[in-house]
Amino acid sequence: MLKTIVLIGMMGSGKTSVGKELAKKLNLEFVDIDHEIEKKYEKSVSEIFKINGEQFFRKIEENMSCKFIDGKPGVISLGGGGYINKKIRNKIKTNGISVWINPSLENIYHRINKSTNKRPLLDYKNLKKTIKEIYDVRKPIYKKADHIIKTKSDNKKIIVEKIIKKL
What we know:
Elements: E1 4-8, H1 15-26, E2 30-32, H2 33-41, H3 45-52, H4 54-68, E3 74-77, H5 86-95, E4 96-103, H6 105-114, H7 127-142, E5 147-151, H8 156-166
Parallel strand pairs: 1-3, 1-4, 2-3, 4-5
């Protein structure tokens, strides 16, 4: 790989677990942008949203993403809303290859529903509806990715093989 591979998609789509597996398979470094933000600010993404607001989070997400999307071979998992940011998209266009991991909304719902990691943009009382609303807004932008990986399986190895074939 000559560029940075950036995994994009909805929260709960498996970007982090697939990213780790892909990096391992390709013998590359893996970076999870949300994890890097949490490490730097010593707070969870939810806490940052709650204390500082979404606008503050999006700015630090932009700065952190642009720092890591440097064109060097590696695998990056971008937060679900990161690809919506035009500056981040442009940075990926210049220095990387974007891969949209696109499972069914039903799979996303089940993963998020069983997760202990509470996502700041979701209304858990109307979880399916909220996920669909966010997806409908983001889908046209996600479609701009260099590669789209539709997933029916939760098997990371199968998804990684699909990505490698596309690349």
